[in-house]
Design a protein that fits this description.
By secondary structure, the protein is an alpha/beta fold. It is built from 34 helices and 33 strands. Among the domains are: about 220-370, Alpha-Beta Complex (Isoleucyl-tRNA Synthetase, domain 2); about 550-610, no CATH class; about 635-790, Orthogonal Bundle (Isoleucyl-tRNA Synthetase, Domain 1); about 900-965; about 975-1095, no CATH class. Pfam families: Anticodon_1, Glyco_transf_22, tRNA-synt_1.
């Protein structure tokens, strides 16, 4: 067999390169467009405003998994790629680019040149996004790509507009709209962000492409309107109006009060003078829409610049003139008009000027706080919306939406997850007409024509048809098409039916099998798509909607380029340095201030950049979170690293399997049956694949991947592979043959199904281990179908218990720091599962000897519960582990006692508070706290009791064990008696000394017989060749001096016997203590030394030194060594130098200090 993996670690680049071949296979396997049974799904078209972000990557990952899963089921799939021209968003980005590159505004270039820039931008983005999609492994059918601004869509959009117009659903009307002065275009309500001012007194106006500035908010200005009849009975000659927008004063046409407000009811029907235009009089009207508690309770009516004012004005049209409705004081660019000498001034700059004029005329009553103020912000530009009255094209969605709601109620359209259905229904319940007009250059032109600005609109798909409808005989009329373009969402709402050939081909079936997208565009796109397509064709565009959540960063913040938390998926796939990220940021269309903020964020979050993780790791990371959650907080880099480790684990798994396949002997005649772990792993595989299939069918790809990941990591790698290693090491060929077959089946099948989620590594490894060289992960193989008959639920239940037992044993080792090399004696009690069949697995995986006998009372056993089961295991604790166990038990006991004390303190505190409390609810709350604390205290008391009993049992066991050890130590070992006997025999047989010993023997003689008469000492005549010390001789002589003094006539021959015998016993005594230390650490050792040499005296010091070293008393050992080196053998310094240099360097032995 050829070695299929050259590298020992996961090679990302090799895997990516290999996958290009598999993608060509995928393209060749796309379904036929004409097949009605085919599964059709569209990729929600990314905007051509920029590259993909993580939200797009999640959509691609989820939808690609759906497509690959269906292909493995044998179904043909067409997954349509597409791109959205994104009218407003693209125009904004191109305008920014124009300013950043050429310092030009849009109105400074021709429309033709601007559209050319937009087209160039679009082409570049389409190329970049296509490259990203392919890099992510998306199996899209590129031969069926769509674009919402191509000729096919232009024709369909015009046809749809005309049909809906003819059906009375689209109409042109004068209405209040949301106007963005920066865009100089209308936008829909859904593109407006509502911002609560709160207690802030300023708001940062963050208009894209313009310098930021702060405007005052949260304040109402009190403006005085003088009564026309100065002799009013009110006691005051004016009414005060509170307004947040004094700059709109020039467009006022009336004052309005609530008819139920007793303060102002008497003024209804009177008139007041305009504070800055005294010649203009304003009526005082009554309307219940006025909020009594807002401001002063009086509303200045400005229908040209406020939605509420416009609605009230329509209710009082009989009291107002056409001039009142048309009177405006702010133009499309946000500057004042019809405002005398303030014309052309920015609306916010003009505010202070207006207030100054009012103060000058004594028409200003001061300021009042208004924290309830809300600002309407353009979601595209950040500018504050200016409500305006304009003639626009609208679509009445009421009947269309009601039809869709009925379809949902009847089950014809389902939404997954179910809780997100309410979000879609809320959109469909909105009754406001959809404003279709956009005053842009980039987009689908509205198919409406007219002769002049005063003539009626002619709605037709093209100019020729408009001429025919206008006057078929006169073809020379000059019709002008509406300059406005349609809302982008109108174009994208037609995607399903256009892909099926509409309008050239009549729709006779539901176009798509399913729609999958993010919930954040469920209203913008999904609701409108269902309503429009259903209305145009009578068919729902799809029977099922699958929604996923909004991808946020790890802190739950929405992705924003200015915040620096938007991550390009390719950063994860290819890796990138922080410097490169900053370079990309610098080339963006953000303002300089936004770039600085984003740069600071990037440097803080990714100081070392982002390592290369590959596409599989990115897909893994995105599917590790609940994709059905409303907000998905993704720490993508950390989770991608987890995915990279998983890829490496798969790589190593296949390397190990390859080693098994190369080592087993196929020619072996020995038959080895499947063991219980072989049956279990096959059962677990089929069960996991069954769960995976169920989760994919219920549109939960994250749970499907989790089932496979759990099987591969926990069951296959952590359990089954571990049980096979002994057979591989011991070359058990019959067993290896079975293992090889099991691994081949399990790994092949696992990789094929894992390719749904992680196609790159799965395809690469599968291509190198597959038995059938013609098989493919893209083609359904009957051999890879699920086999429910292999599932053994009883075996899995038993094995689950066994694994929990193993987990418990490993936990015990970790808690008490017991080495895995120490074999533990374990007994399991209380569970019906028979562990005899699993004995081998347990022993191999956690190094225990398993016993079924109930532990005896005289043995020390610690009971541990098996989590999740009515069972416990008893672990016999030996002396070598006793101190570790006792230490851990004491730590837990201290912790329990500390916790008990804390809650007793809480009880005491709440009892005092309960006594001093007067309110019943407070007393009840303190009593509840006391009850909760008592429950904890009782639990701690029980735990302390159990821990105390265990510690006592352990101490009793330790005492018995130590008593036995002491008893054994008191018994003289035969080897020690033998040494004493040898010592006596040696003294009797060799009483005389060698010349080297003569100095010490003569010194002992002189000390015993001449004592203090130093003049007779032999040392004066024979001092020796080197200086000698009398210390050893003095010590030995001291033991025999009483004998010589008492038995004065005793022969010196017997004294010599005594001297050598004393010296021998002294050395034996020291050696015996040394041997005991050796026994304790290393085993047994023995020897005998009794010659009266300086070496022998030094040996006593060496033995003593080593006793202290073995006791880890380094300083004491060093002092003994120093004394014996100076007194007996100076050469010992060479020996001791080697012994003591290491503890000095490691600071176990301080050069200066105390022991």
């Amino acid at each position: 067999m050829v070695q299929y993996v050259r590298n020992t670690s996961f090679d990302i680049n090799a895997v990516i390169k290999s996958h290009e071949k598999w993608m060509r296979h995928a393209v060749a396997m796309q379904g036929k467009e004409s097949d009605s049974k085919i599964c059709r799904i569209i990729l929600p078209p990314p905007n051509v405003t920029g590259n993909l972000h993580l939200g797009h990557a999640l959509t691609v990952t989820v939808e690609d998994a759906m497509c690959r899963y269906r292909r493995l089921q044998g179904q043909q799939v067409i997954w349509y790629p597409g791109f959205d021209h994104a009218g407003i968003a693209t125009q904004v980005v191109v305008e920014r680019m124009l300013w950043n590159e050429k310092k030009l505004r849009k109105h400074q270039v021709t429309q033709h040149d601007f559209l050319e820039l937009c087209q160039r931008w679009k082409n570049e983005r389409v190329a970049d996004i296509s490259k990203q999609l392919k890099a992510l492994g998306a199996t899209l059918d590129w031969s069926n790509m769509y674009y919402t601004l191509d000729d096919r869509f232009s024709e369909a959009v015009a046809a749809a507009f005309c049909q809906l117009y003819n059906n009375g659903l689209i109409f042109n009307d004068l209405r209040m709209i949301n106007w963005c002065p920066t865009l100089r275009s209308a936008i829909s309500d859904q593109e407006v962000d509502i911002v609560d001012v709160g207690k802030d007194n300023s708001f940062l106006l963050n208009k894209c492409g313009f310098e930021k500035k702060y405007i005052e908010v949260g304040v109402m200005h009190r403006i005085r309107y003088e009564f026309l009849d100065a002799s009013s009975s009110s006691g005051s000659n004016y009414l005060e109006v509170g307004t947040t927008r004094p700059e709109t004063l020039f467009a006022d046409c009336a004052l309005v009060v609530n008819p139920n407000d007793e303060r102002y009811v008497k003024y209804i029907g009177l008139h007041v003078r305009h504070p800055l235009c005294p010649d203009r009089t304003l009526p005082i009207l009554a309307d219940e829409a006025v909020q009594v508690d807002k401001g002063t309770g009086v509303l200045k009516l400005t229908p040209a610049h406020d939605f509420t004012d416009f609605a009230i004005a329509r209710n009082h049209a009989d009291h107002l003139s056409d001039e009142d409705f048309n009177r405006a004081c702010i133009d499309e660019s946000g500057c004042l008009i019809n405002a005398a000498n303030l014309d052309g001034m920015d609306r916010f700059e003009a505010r202070n000027e207006v207030v100054a004029k009012l103060v000058e005329r004594d028409k200003y009553g001061g300021r009042m706080s208004y924290h309830e103020q809300q600002l309407r912000i353009c979601g595209r530009t950040g500018d504050i919306i200016e409500p305006m009255v304009k003639k626009q094209w609208f679509m009445d969605c009421t009947s269309m939406n009601d039809a869709v709601l009925r379809a949902i109620e009847q089950g014809l359209l389902t939404v997954t997850p179910k809780y997100m259905q309410k979000h879609l229904e809320n959109w469909l319940n909105k009754k406001e007409p959809w404003c279709l007009s956009r005053q842009l250059d980039w987009g689908q032109r509205i198919p409406a024509f007219r002769l002049s600005s005063n003539s009626d609109w002619i709605v037709a798909p093209n100019e020729a048809e408009a001429l025919r409808l206008c006057d078929g005989a006169n073809t020379k009329m000059n019709l002008k098409q509406d300059d406005d373009v349609l809302d982008t969402w109108f174009s994208s709402s037609l995607i399903p039916i256009i892909l099926l050939g509409w309008p050239k081909k009549r729709i006779d079936r539901i176009p798509l099998s399913v729609l999958e997208t993010g919930y954040d565009i469920a209203g913008f796109w999904v609701a409108r798509m269902v309503a429009v397509c259903y209305s145009l064709t009578g068919y729902l565009p799809f029977p099922k909607v699958v929604l996923h959540g909004l991808v946020c960063d790890e802190n739950g913040k929405k992705m924003s380029k200015s915040l620096g938390n938007v991550i390009d998926p390719m950063y994860i796939v290819d890796g990138i340095s922080v410097q490169k990220m900053l370079e990309h940021l610098d080339k963006s269309t953000l303002s300089e201030r936004e770039k600085k903020m984003a740069a600071d964020s990037l440097k803080s979050r990714f100081p070392k950049g982002i390592p290369q993780c590959g596409p599989d790791a990115l897909r893994f990371a995105l599917l590790r979170y609940d994709v059905g959650a409303m907000n998905i907080n993704v720490d993508v880099v950390q989770t991608a690293m987890e995915g990279l480790k998983f890829c490496n684990k798969l790589w190593n798994l296949c390397i190990y399997a390859d080693e098994v396949w190369q080592n087993y002997c196929e020619a072996s005649d020995q038959v080895c049956r499947d063991r219980i772990e072989d049956c279990w792993i096959r059962s677990r595989l089929e069960n996991s694949l069954m769960i995976m299939s169920e989760k994919m069918e219920s549109n939960c790809p994250h749970l499907a991947l989790n089932a496979l990941h759990k099987f591969l990591c926990n069951d296959l790698c952590d359990v089954y592979i571990e049980t096979t290693k002994k057979a591989l090491w011991s070359k058990d060929f019959p067993r290896l043959r079975v293992i090889a077959e099991v691994l081949r089946d399990v790994i092949e099948k696992s990789l094929i199904h894992l390719s749904i989620f992680m196609p790159f590594v799965s395809a690469y490894l599968f291509d190198r281990i597959k038995r059938d060289k013609g098989s493919s992960i893209f083609v359904a193989d009957p051999k890879m179908d699920l086999k429910p008959t292999l599932i053994d639920k009883k075996l899995e239940e038993d094995m689950s218990f066994v694994l929990q037992v193993i987990k418990t044993v490993r936990s015990i080792r970790a808690q008490f720091q017991i080495s895995s090399k120490n074999t533990l004696e374990v007994t399991c009690c209380g569970e019906s599962c028979d562990l005899k069949n699993f004995k081998l697995i347990i022993q191999e995986l956690c190094n225990v000897t398993l016993s079924s006998a109930v532990p005896e009372e005289n043995n020390y056993n610690l009971p541990f519960p098996v989590s999740g089961y009515a069972a416990e295991i008893h672990v016999s604790i030996g002396a070598e582990c006793g101190s570790l166990v006792k230490g851990e038990l004491l730590r837990r006991l201290q912790k329990a006692e500390k916790r008990k004390g804390q809650f007793l303190h809480q009880i005491d505190k709440h009892e005092k508070l309960a006594k001093s409390a007067t309110r019943g609810d407070l007393i009840e709350r303190h009593q509840r706290k006391i009850s909760q604390a008592n429950a904890v205290v009782n639990g701690m008391v029980e735990e302390i009791s159990k821990l105390g009993a265990l510690i006592k049992k352990l101490e009793d066991f330790s005492k018995k064990f130590n008593f036995w050890l002491q008893a054994m130590s008191r018994r003289k070992r035969p080897s020690e008696w033998l040494l004493i006997g040898v010592c006596v025999l040696h003294v009797m047989m060799a009483p005389y000394t060698k010349v080297e010993e003569s100095f010490n023997v003569q010194a002992i003689h002189d000390i015993l017989y001449h004592q203090l008469n130093f003049t007779k000492y032999d040392h004066h005549e024979f001092p020796g060749v080197v200086p000698r010390t009398f210390v050893g001789a003095v010590i030995v002589s001291a033991t025999l001096l009483p004998v010589v003094s008492y038995f004065s006539n005793i022969s010196k021959h017997w004294i010599l016997y005594g001297v050598r015998f004393v010296l021998g016993l002294t050395i034996l005594f020291a050696f015996n203590h040394f041997a005991q230390r050796i026994d304790k650490k290393f085993g047994e050792l023995s020897g005998d030394f009794l010659r009266p040499l300086p070496n022998t005296f030094a040996l006593l010091g060496v033995l003593w030194t080593y006793q202290k070293i073995l006791d880890e008393r380094w300083l004491c050992a060093a002092r003994i060594a120093t004394v014996f080196t100076l007194l007996f053998r100076c050469e010992l310094i060479l020996f001791y130098g080697c012994v003591f240099i290491w503890p000095v360097l490691t600071r176990q032995l301080p050069l200066l200090g105390r022991n």
